[in-house]
């Protein structure tokens, strides 16, 4: 696969390890005859480390032997989160430390979770782009402060703290972006 054909979410092999592409920046050449550079922000699937990679558009990369499977959370104990494949009912378990960035977005009954499978082993999970969460604690808005758009912290049902506009009230359901952790809209 050519570097210029890679999209966000693609998993390729870099230095012998599978990396998932999370961001792409294209740098056009400033001189004639120079090559366009593709700068990728990636995350190593096995170690979870973020890396920056730069390639020319004509460089060839190999796609990793990698798949995504729809799963649901069966239960969580003190050390692991246990998942079940929705198609063949195979069980996967991951250490809670491996999914600590995803846990604040995972409310009970969340649909759209995908297991990242590499060499027949689950190496991580992928959440949907947005999730709907309910506010459990939020300060009331102050009347008369609507001339400027100010934000206030709101604690969601999973413990996630999100900055929301002042008019949002406790008990409302909100759409939250799982990639950035930012408030998007009311649900």
From TrEMBL:
The lineage of its organism: Bacteria, Pseudomonadati, Planctomycetota, Planctomycetia, Pirellulales. The gene is yeiP. GO terms for biological process: peptide biosynthetic process. CDD domains: S1_EF-P_repeat_2. The keyword Chloroplast does not apply. Residues 131-186 form the Elongation factor P C-terminal domain. InterPro entries: Elong-fact-P_C, NA-bd_OB-fold, Rib_uL2_dom2, Transl_elong_fac_P/YeiP, Transl_elong_KOW-like, Transl_elong_P/YeiP_cen, Transl_elong_P/YeiP_CS, Translation_prot_SH3-like_sf. Keywords: Elongation factor, Protein biosynthesis. Belongs to the elongation factor P family. This is Elongation factor P-like protein. Pfam families: EFP, EFP_N, Elong-fact-P_C. GO terms for molecular function: translation elongation factor activity. Residues 68-123 form the Translation elongation factor P/YeiP central domain. GO terms for cellular component: cytosol. It comes from Rubripirellula reticaptiva. The keyword Oxidoreductase does not apply.
């Amino acid at each position: 696969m050519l570097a210029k054909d890679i999209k966000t979410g693609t998993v390729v092999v870099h230095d012998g390890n599978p990396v998932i592409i999370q961001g792409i920046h294209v740098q056009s050449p400033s001189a004639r005859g120079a090559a366009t550079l593709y700068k990728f922000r990636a995350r190593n699937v096995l170690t979870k480390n973020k890396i920056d990679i730069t390639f020319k558009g004509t460089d060839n990369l190999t796609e990793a032997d990698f798949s995504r499977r729809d799963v649901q959370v069966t239960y969580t104990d003190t050390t692991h989160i246990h998942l079940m494949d929705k198609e063949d009912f195979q069980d996967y378990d991951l250490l809670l430390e491996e999914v600590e960035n995803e846990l604040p977005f995972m409310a009970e009954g969340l649909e759209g979770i995908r297991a990242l499978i590499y060499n027949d082993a689950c190496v991580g999970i992928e959440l949907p782009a947005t999730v709907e969460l309910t506010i459990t604690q939020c300060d009331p808005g102050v009347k008369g402060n609507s001339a400027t758009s100010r934000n206030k912290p709101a604690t969601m049902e999973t413990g996630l703290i999100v900055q929301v506009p002042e008019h949002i009230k406790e008990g409302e359901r909100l759409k939250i972006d799982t990639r950035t952790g930012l408030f998007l809209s009311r649900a």
